[in-house]
Amino acid sequence: MATVEVDRRAVRVLLKPWERPFAGGRARLVLAREVITKVQRVNRPTRAAAAPGGRAGLLVTGVLKLGRWGIGTGTSRFVSVRRWMPAIRLVVDRETAGELGYDELLISTKDVDELIAALGSASVPESG
Q1: Tens of pLDDT along 29-84?
Q2: How far apart are CA 8 and CA 11, in angstroms?
Q3: What are the beta bridge partners of residue 4?
């Protein structure tokens, strides 16, 4: 699955080669820290409530979600999540969403708590 890295200036989501076709061929998604408006832990990211709406991507029910989710909801999400692994939700400002093509990124990672601590002030309580 994707790898999430945080430094003083940016958050980088590094995609595996097999994930890239589901992100428009991009190898990484980079967000400047100041464009992130919300950071949240999602304990069960494969549930429908974590990424509602239509999709264009890969779905193995209850096991894996990869691609664009939220079609028809007004919120476009890039999703790369697996069962039994929590995810980090990164919500970006409107201008960045227009450039990036996504309003949110939802990425499974074993380092969720460390990433949220590193991002600090934009974090909100966890969701199901």
Answers
A1: 999 999 999 999 999 999 999 999 999 999 999 899 999 999 999 999 999 999 99
A2: 9
A3: 13
Instruction: Sort 44 into a burial class: Cβ within 10 Å, 0-12 / 13-18 / 19+.
Output: middle
Give me 24's structure tokens: 């428009």
Structure tokens at 43: 């304990």
> Phi/psi at 83 (nearest 5 deg)?
-65, 150
Q: Can you give the pTM of this predicted structure?
A: 0.91
94 token code pair:
């409107």
Tell me the CA distances in angstroms from 119 to 24, 59, 95, one per residue in order: 26, 29, 20
Nearest to 29 by CA among 128, 81, 104: 104
Closest to 57 (Cα-Cα) out of 42, 44, 43, 46: 46
